[in-house]
Design goal:
With 314 residues, the chain is α/β, with parallel strands linked by helices. It has 12 helices and 11 strands. Helices cover 44% and strands 19% of the residues. Helix 1 packs across helix 3 and helix 5 packs across helix 11. The longest helix is centred in the N-terminal third of the chain and has 29 residues. It starts with a helix and ends in a 9-residue tail after the last helix.
Length: 314
Protein backbone atom coordinates (compact mmCIF):
# COMPACT_ATOMS: atom_id res chain seq x y z
CA UNK A 1 0.00 0.00 0.00
CA UNK A 2 2.87 2.39 0.80
CA UNK A 3 4.39 1.72 -2.60
CA UNK A 4 1.11 2.48 -4.32
CA UNK A 5 0.75 5.70 -2.35
CA UNK A 6 4.27 6.73 -3.40
CA UNK A 7 3.31 6.15 -7.04
CA UNK A 8 0.15 8.18 -6.54
CA UNK A 9 2.09 11.10 -5.05
CA UNK A 10 4.54 10.98 -7.94
CA UNK A 11 1.64 11.18 -10.39
CA UNK A 12 0.25 14.17 -8.50
CA UNK A 13 3.62 15.94 -8.73
CA UNK A 14 4.42 15.12 -12.34
CA UNK A 15 0.87 15.26 -13.78
CA UNK A 16 2.00 12.65 -16.31
CA UNK A 17 2.12 8.85 -16.11
CA UNK A 18 5.42 8.50 -17.96
CA UNK A 19 7.27 11.14 -15.92
CA UNK A 20 5.81 9.76 -12.68
CA UNK A 21 7.02 6.26 -13.57
CA UNK A 22 10.47 7.61 -14.41
CA UNK A 23 10.63 9.46 -11.07
CA UNK A 24 9.78 6.20 -9.28
CA UNK A 25 12.27 4.18 -11.37
CA UNK A 26 9.59 1.80 -12.67
CA UNK A 27 7.92 1.22 -16.01
CA UNK A 28 4.77 3.13 -16.91
CA UNK A 29 2.64 -0.09 -16.98
CA UNK A 30 3.88 -0.95 -13.47
CA UNK A 31 2.81 2.43 -12.12
CA UNK A 32 -0.53 2.41 -13.97
CA UNK A 33 -1.33 -1.11 -12.77
CA UNK A 34 -0.49 -0.22 -9.18
CA UNK A 35 -2.90 2.71 -9.24
CA UNK A 36 -5.60 0.51 -10.77
CA UNK A 37 -5.02 -2.00 -7.97
CA UNK A 38 -5.37 0.81 -5.46
CA UNK A 39 -8.70 1.77 -7.02
CA UNK A 40 -9.85 -1.84 -6.76
CA UNK A 41 -8.77 -2.13 -3.13
CA UNK A 42 -10.45 1.14 -2.09
CA UNK A 43 -13.42 0.58 -4.45
CA UNK A 44 -13.37 4.12 -5.83
CA UNK A 45 -12.12 5.71 -9.06
CA UNK A 46 -8.98 7.73 -8.33
CA UNK A 47 -7.83 8.98 -11.74
CA UNK A 48 -10.00 10.55 -14.43
CA UNK A 49 -9.86 8.10 -17.33
CA UNK A 50 -8.72 9.20 -20.78
CA UNK A 51 -5.96 8.87 -23.35
CA UNK A 52 -3.60 10.68 -20.98
CA UNK A 53 -3.61 11.93 -17.40
CA UNK A 54 -6.27 14.60 -16.96
CA UNK A 55 -6.64 14.87 -13.18
CA UNK A 56 -8.04 13.15 -10.12
CA UNK A 57 -11.64 12.35 -9.27
CA UNK A 58 -13.13 13.87 -6.07
CA UNK A 59 -12.53 10.50 -4.42
CA UNK A 60 -8.99 10.52 -5.78
CA UNK A 61 -8.29 13.91 -4.22
CA UNK A 62 -9.37 12.55 -0.85
CA UNK A 63 -7.15 9.48 -1.29
CA UNK A 64 -4.29 11.81 -2.24
CA UNK A 65 -4.80 13.80 0.94
CA UNK A 66 -4.49 10.68 3.08
CA UNK A 67 -1.60 9.34 1.01
CA UNK A 68 0.44 12.47 1.67
CA UNK A 69 -0.20 12.19 5.40
CA UNK A 70 0.55 8.46 5.58
CA UNK A 71 3.77 8.66 3.57
CA UNK A 72 4.93 11.67 5.63
CA UNK A 73 4.24 9.76 8.86
CA UNK A 74 6.17 6.77 7.52
CA UNK A 75 9.12 8.99 6.61
CA UNK A 76 9.00 10.56 10.06
CA UNK A 77 9.02 7.14 11.70
CA UNK A 78 12.04 6.06 9.65
CA UNK A 79 13.88 9.26 10.60
CA UNK A 80 13.11 8.78 14.31
CA UNK A 81 14.24 5.14 14.25
CA UNK A 82 17.40 5.92 12.31
CA UNK A 83 18.23 8.75 14.70
CA UNK A 84 18.24 6.34 17.63
CA UNK A 85 21.15 4.41 16.21
CA UNK A 86 22.91 6.59 13.67
CA UNK A 87 21.83 10.16 14.30
CA UNK A 88 19.22 12.19 12.47
CA UNK A 89 19.45 12.04 8.66
CA UNK A 90 17.25 12.60 5.63
CA UNK A 91 16.24 15.36 3.23
CA UNK A 92 15.11 18.69 4.70
CA UNK A 93 12.75 20.61 2.38
CA UNK A 94 12.53 24.34 3.05
CA UNK A 95 10.45 27.03 1.37
CA UNK A 96 11.18 30.74 1.70
CA UNK A 97 9.59 33.92 0.49
CA UNK A 98 11.99 35.62 -1.96
CA UNK A 99 12.67 38.58 0.33
CA UNK A 100 13.81 36.24 3.15
CA UNK A 101 16.14 34.03 1.09
CA UNK A 102 19.32 35.92 2.15
CA UNK A 103 18.66 34.98 5.80
CA UNK A 104 18.15 31.25 5.20
CA UNK A 105 21.87 30.33 4.91
CA UNK A 106 22.50 31.75 8.39
CA UNK A 107 20.09 29.18 9.83
CA UNK A 108 21.26 26.34 7.61
CA UNK A 109 24.93 26.93 8.48
CA UNK A 110 24.31 26.21 12.15
CA UNK A 111 21.91 23.37 11.31
CA UNK A 112 24.57 21.70 9.14
CA UNK A 113 27.01 21.85 12.05
CA UNK A 114 24.53 20.02 14.26
CA UNK A 115 23.31 17.52 11.64
CA UNK A 116 25.95 16.92 8.96
CA UNK A 117 24.10 13.86 7.58
CA UNK A 118 21.04 15.86 6.52
CA UNK A 119 20.90 17.29 3.01
CA UNK A 120 18.77 20.36 2.42
CA UNK A 121 16.92 21.95 -0.47
CA UNK A 122 15.50 25.48 -0.51
CA UNK A 123 12.72 26.69 -2.83
CA UNK A 124 11.65 30.27 -3.43
CA UNK A 125 7.87 30.41 -2.91
CA UNK A 126 5.09 32.87 -2.20
CA UNK A 127 3.56 32.74 1.28
CA UNK A 128 0.40 31.21 -0.20
CA UNK A 129 2.42 28.47 -1.88
CA UNK A 130 4.17 27.84 1.43
CA UNK A 131 0.84 27.35 3.19
CA UNK A 132 -0.29 24.93 0.48
CA UNK A 133 2.92 22.89 0.56
CA UNK A 134 3.07 22.71 4.36
CA UNK A 135 -0.54 21.50 4.41
CA UNK A 136 0.25 19.01 1.64
CA UNK A 137 3.39 17.58 3.33
CA UNK A 138 5.55 18.89 0.47
CA UNK A 139 7.64 21.07 2.81
CA UNK A 140 9.18 20.41 6.21
CA UNK A 141 9.57 24.07 7.16
CA UNK A 142 9.62 27.57 5.69
CA UNK A 143 10.78 31.13 6.32
CA UNK A 144 8.01 33.68 5.87
CA UNK A 145 6.13 36.55 7.50
CA UNK A 146 4.77 35.87 10.97
CA UNK A 147 2.52 38.87 11.63
CA UNK A 148 1.26 39.92 8.20
CA UNK A 149 -1.19 37.51 6.57
CA UNK A 150 0.04 34.88 9.08
CA UNK A 151 -0.13 31.23 8.07
CA UNK A 152 -2.57 28.90 9.80
CA UNK A 153 -1.84 25.68 11.72
CA UNK A 154 1.88 26.38 12.11
CA UNK A 155 4.41 26.75 14.89
CA UNK A 156 6.79 29.71 14.64
CA UNK A 157 10.30 30.83 15.58
CA UNK A 158 11.02 34.57 15.01
CA UNK A 159 14.25 35.42 13.17
CA UNK A 160 14.33 39.11 12.19
CA UNK A 161 12.24 42.21 11.49
CA UNK A 162 11.86 43.38 7.91
CA UNK A 163 11.91 47.08 7.02
CA UNK A 164 11.37 48.74 3.66
CA UNK A 165 13.48 51.07 1.55
CA UNK A 166 13.27 52.95 -1.69
CA UNK A 167 16.08 51.76 -3.95
CA UNK A 168 16.63 54.36 -6.66
CA UNK A 169 19.11 56.27 -8.77
CA UNK A 170 20.60 59.19 -6.83
CA UNK A 171 19.30 61.59 -9.46
CA UNK A 172 15.72 60.47 -8.69
CA UNK A 173 15.70 61.68 -5.08
CA UNK A 174 16.44 64.91 -3.26
CA UNK A 175 20.16 65.45 -2.66
CA UNK A 176 21.13 64.78 0.94
CA UNK A 177 17.89 62.98 1.79
CA UNK A 178 18.19 60.36 4.55
CA UNK A 179 14.63 59.01 4.20
CA UNK A 180 11.62 59.33 1.91
CA UNK A 181 7.88 59.23 2.51
CA UNK A 182 5.72 56.64 0.79
CA UNK A 183 3.77 59.58 -0.62
CA UNK A 184 6.85 60.89 -2.43
CA UNK A 185 7.97 57.42 -3.54
CA UNK A 186 4.60 56.99 -5.25
CA UNK A 187 5.49 59.80 -7.67
CA UNK A 188 8.44 57.85 -9.12
CA UNK A 189 8.34 55.25 -11.91
CA UNK A 190 8.38 51.99 -9.96
CA UNK A 191 9.19 48.35 -10.54
CA UNK A 192 7.43 46.21 -7.90
CA UNK A 193 7.06 42.54 -7.17
CA UNK A 194 4.03 40.82 -8.70
CA UNK A 195 0.74 40.89 -6.72
CA UNK A 196 1.04 37.21 -5.75
CA UNK A 197 4.03 38.15 -3.57
CA UNK A 198 3.23 39.24 -0.03
CA UNK A 199 5.93 41.91 -0.10
CA UNK A 200 4.01 43.57 -2.95
CA UNK A 201 0.78 43.47 -0.97
CA UNK A 202 2.61 45.08 1.95
CA UNK A 203 3.83 47.86 -0.34
CA UNK A 204 0.33 48.38 -1.78
CA UNK A 205 -1.07 48.64 1.76
CA UNK A 206 1.58 51.20 2.73
CA UNK A 207 0.79 53.32 -0.33
CA UNK A 208 -2.93 53.20 0.54
CA UNK A 209 -2.13 54.26 4.11
CA UNK A 210 -0.31 57.22 2.55
CA UNK A 211 -3.44 57.92 0.46
CA UNK A 212 -1.79 56.86 -2.77
CA UNK A 213 -2.59 54.21 -5.39
CA UNK A 214 0.38 53.06 -7.42
CA UNK A 215 0.34 51.48 -10.88
CA UNK A 216 3.90 50.21 -11.32
CA UNK A 217 5.73 50.75 -14.58
CA UNK A 218 7.08 47.18 -14.32
CA UNK A 219 6.41 44.03 -12.30
CA UNK A 220 8.56 40.97 -11.63
CA UNK A 221 8.67 38.03 -9.23
CA UNK A 222 12.47 38.20 -9.04
CA UNK A 223 14.35 40.22 -6.43
CA UNK A 224 17.49 40.08 -8.61
CA UNK A 225 15.56 41.52 -11.56
CA UNK A 226 14.38 44.41 -9.40
CA UNK A 227 17.98 45.33 -8.58
CA UNK A 228 18.99 45.02 -12.25
CA UNK A 229 16.16 47.32 -13.36
CA UNK A 230 16.99 49.94 -10.74
CA UNK A 231 20.68 49.72 -11.60
CA UNK A 232 19.83 50.34 -15.28
CA UNK A 233 17.85 53.45 -14.36
CA UNK A 234 14.54 52.20 -15.78
CA UNK A 235 12.65 52.49 -12.46
CA UNK A 236 12.99 52.75 -8.70
CA UNK A 237 11.65 50.09 -6.35
CA UNK A 238 10.44 49.28 -2.85
CA UNK A 239 12.80 46.66 -1.40
CA UNK A 240 13.22 44.86 1.93
CA UNK A 241 16.34 45.28 4.03
CA UNK A 242 17.51 41.75 3.23
CA UNK A 243 17.89 42.56 -0.49
CA UNK A 244 20.45 45.21 0.38
CA UNK A 245 22.57 42.54 2.08
CA UNK A 246 22.97 40.78 -1.28
CA UNK A 247 24.19 43.64 -3.44
CA UNK A 248 27.23 45.87 -3.29
CA UNK A 249 26.82 49.59 -2.87
CA UNK A 250 26.85 51.34 -6.23
CA UNK A 251 27.80 55.02 -6.54
CA UNK A 252 24.76 55.76 -8.70
CA UNK A 253 22.27 54.18 -6.27
CA UNK A 254 20.75 55.19 -2.96
CA UNK A 255 18.55 53.27 -0.51
CA UNK A 256 16.33 55.41 1.69
CA UNK A 257 14.13 54.19 4.57
CA UNK A 258 10.46 54.62 3.71
CA UNK A 259 8.48 56.59 6.30
CA UNK A 260 4.96 57.75 7.08
CA UNK A 261 4.00 54.99 7.66
CA UNK A 262 7.04 53.35 9.27
CA UNK A 263 6.44 49.64 8.75
CA UNK A 264 8.20 46.58 10.14
CA UNK A 265 7.07 42.96 9.99
CA UNK A 266 8.42 39.89 11.75
CA UNK A 267 9.90 37.11 9.61
CA UNK A 268 10.66 33.69 11.00
CA UNK A 269 10.69 29.93 10.66
CA UNK A 270 7.37 28.10 10.43
CA UNK A 271 6.52 24.41 10.41
CA UNK A 272 3.30 22.42 10.55
CA UNK A 273 1.57 22.23 13.93
CA UNK A 274 1.20 18.45 14.10
CA UNK A 275 1.70 15.79 16.76
CA UNK A 276 4.22 14.40 16.66
CA UNK A 277 6.06 17.11 14.75
CA UNK A 278 8.13 15.98 11.77
CA UNK A 279 11.61 15.12 13.09
CA UNK A 280 13.56 17.27 10.62
CA UNK A 281 11.26 20.26 11.14
CA UNK A 282 11.53 19.87 14.92
CA UNK A 283 15.33 19.75 14.72
CA UNK A 284 15.50 22.83 12.47
CA UNK A 285 13.15 24.76 14.78
CA UNK A 286 15.32 23.87 17.78
CA UNK A 287 18.39 25.24 15.99
CA UNK A 288 16.54 28.40 14.92
CA UNK A 289 15.49 28.98 18.53
CA UNK A 290 19.00 28.56 19.94
CA UNK A 291 20.23 31.57 21.94
CA UNK A 292 22.12 34.01 19.79
CA UNK A 293 20.99 32.85 16.34
CA UNK A 294 18.41 35.59 15.76
CA UNK A 295 20.88 38.11 17.14
CA UNK A 296 23.52 36.80 14.71
CA UNK A 297 21.15 37.21 11.76
CA UNK A 298 20.52 40.81 12.81
CA UNK A 299 24.23 41.48 13.34
CA UNK A 300 25.15 40.10 9.92
CA UNK A 301 22.37 42.19 8.37
CA UNK A 302 23.68 45.33 10.08
CA UNK A 303 27.20 44.54 8.86
CA UNK A 304 26.04 44.10 5.27
CA UNK A 305 23.97 47.30 5.40
CA UNK A 306 26.73 49.41 6.91
CA UNK A 307 28.07 50.59 3.51
CA UNK A 308 24.58 51.95 2.79
CA UNK A 309 24.66 53.82 6.14
CA UNK A 310 21.33 52.19 6.92
CA UNK A 311 22.13 49.68 9.62
CA UNK A 312 21.20 51.81 12.61
CA UNK A 313 18.05 50.57 14.27
CA UNK A 314 17.44 47.56 12.03
Amino acid sequence: MFRKFVYLLALAREQHFGRAAEACHVSQPTLSNAIRQLEDELRVPIVERGQKFSGFTPEGLKVLEYARRIVAERDGLYQELTALGQGLSGHLRIGAIPTALPAVPHVLARFAERYPQIRSSVRSLSSRDIQRDLDGFELDAAVTYLDNEPLSNVRTVPLFSERYFLLAQRRQVREGATSIRWTDAAELPLCLLTPDMQNRRIADTAFRMADRTVVPLMETNSIVTIYTIVRSGLAASVVPSQLLTLVALHPDLVALPLTEPDLTYAVGLVYADREPPAPLAKALAAVAAEPGLAERVRALTDEALAPWSLSKGL
